[in-house]
Amino acid sequence: MSFGFLGIQFGFALQGSTMSRIFETLGAEKDNIPLLWIAAPLAGLIVQPIIGYLSDNTWHKNLGRRRPFFLLGAILSSIALLLMPYSSAVWMAAGLLLVLDASINISMEPFRALVADKLPDSQRSYGFVIQTLIIGIGTWIASNLPKFMNNVLDISNEAAPGVVPESVKVAFIVGAVVFIGSILVTIFTTKEYTPEEMKKFDPDSEEEKDEGMLKTILGTYALMPKIMKKLGVVQFFSWFAFFAMWTLANPALTSHIYNAPKPQIEEFAQLDAEGNIQYDADRVILFQDDQTRLEYSERDKSYNEASDDVGSKMGIYGLSSMAFALLLTFYTSRFAINRKIVHMGSLILGGIGFLLMFFIPGEPDMLYICFGLIGFAWGSILSMPYAMLSSSVESSKMGLMMGVFNMFIVVPQIIAALGGVVFLQKLIGEESIHAMSVAGIFLLLAAFSNLLITDRKAIKYDPA
After folding, report:
1. What is the tens place of the pLDDT at every residue in 221-232?
2. Angle at 394 between CA 393 and CA 396, to 5 degrees
3. DSSP code per residue over 71-106
4. Model pTM?
5. 133 pLDDT tier (thresholds 50, 70, 90)
């Protein structure tokens, strides 16, 4: 039932490891990159509650309740993935990011609800951990695709100024194929319970009159349970940290760890009296001379190689989250766990991983340790909060509740995108690596926010 998450994570991992690189390639200033990402959390804020409500109230005789949304999201996401690396301007890439993230959310939100639909409370930690295991596999493979295309298939990772390298384009094509293919596996191999069967499984749930989508969603926001609010604090700090990583890890690490920042074409090209770049008749950039052309080419090559390596090493957090999920899978299939303690410890390890990055300039291999630690936090973020929440929510509202819960994911990302992460980074120092320091501090705050959670049923499933 969770295999489709492999494709969803291909989309998210390519977006997370490569999108800032695309923005930089198209000429975006480093400090403006988080703002260019704002389309992604905005799409989630709008789409997820709507899809949650619609999937709770949908029943298709062939596709069931959640699977129609899997299919729609997969088709739209695959189209966006195919088009993204062919963007010719920053505004075009930002627009496609909005389409891509909204489409991924259409598929992703019902997957969370599907696990809760099909599993009793005693197996939900296990179910969400299995989902995390598949996400980890997808993260690692997709993050390594551009480097694999260049090193193994010999597809060039160099391109003219303002053009996305061919290796990145091919990686996105592979991502589109995997996305729709894995979603189709889930659609064709998973049975969903009818509304009547769901009622039998949860006879204590109250039958409520449908008051319409907008009123229902707003009412759910107003009357959200206490456990959701407390988990929301944890989620706020967690997702602020990871948004900082997705948007600024590439510029931060290529410059601080590899000493290979993206070269600014204005320093090498011929400029007119107003400082505009000059082009020849074929719209090819005119360099100052052959020496500056060669210097730009060498520095851009170093940047692209560093970006490939950053993306590859970011994939390690997918591997370690997979290992974390695998261990929890074996354990939670037999025993109860203290979800709060597991989540707190994992977030502390992730915070240490981010903070360590400042102390390792010139040592890219140390990033294996950093992202390995971050993966423990990521694996827990993708499983423990949902397991804790699902233990306190009626099955008839599971899709809507999961969608509303998404508010605590997207709001911190919107705040970070509107300048929050850059502002906090500059309070520490001008160096871009301090964006990762901010991420580490916020993960530690997320860890200790778990102390707010006191609900016994959410913390630990008790078979008795």
Report:
1. 556 677 788 888
2. 135
3. HHHHHHHHHHHHHGGG--SHHHHHHHHHHHHHHHHH
4. 0.81
5. confident
Reference 194, options 1, 389, 62; nearest CA is 62
Please report how the helices 290-314 and 121-151 are oriented relative to each other, as an axis angle in degrees rounded to 10: 150
Could you state, in order of their start, the residue ranges of all structural domains in the chain? 5-197+214-459
If you write DSSP's letter for every residue of 340-394 in order, what string do you get? HHHHHHHHHHHHHHHHHGGG-TT-GGGHHHHHHHHHHHHHHHTTHHHHHHHTTS-
DSSP letters along 156-179, please? ----STT---HHHHHHHHHHHHHH
pLDDT in tens, 44-85: 777 777 776 777 777 777 777 788 888 888 999 999 999 999
The answer to whether 415 and 244 have CB atoms below 8 angstroms apart is no
Mean of pLDDT values over 247-252: 95
Fold of the domain built from segment(s) 5-197+214-459:
Growth Hormone; Chain: A; (1.20.1250)
Q: What are phi and psi of 271, to 5 degrees?
A: -120, 150
Could you tell me which of 100, 93, 147, 159 has the C-alpha nearest to residue 314?
A: 147
CA–CA separation, 120 and 458 (whole Å)? 14
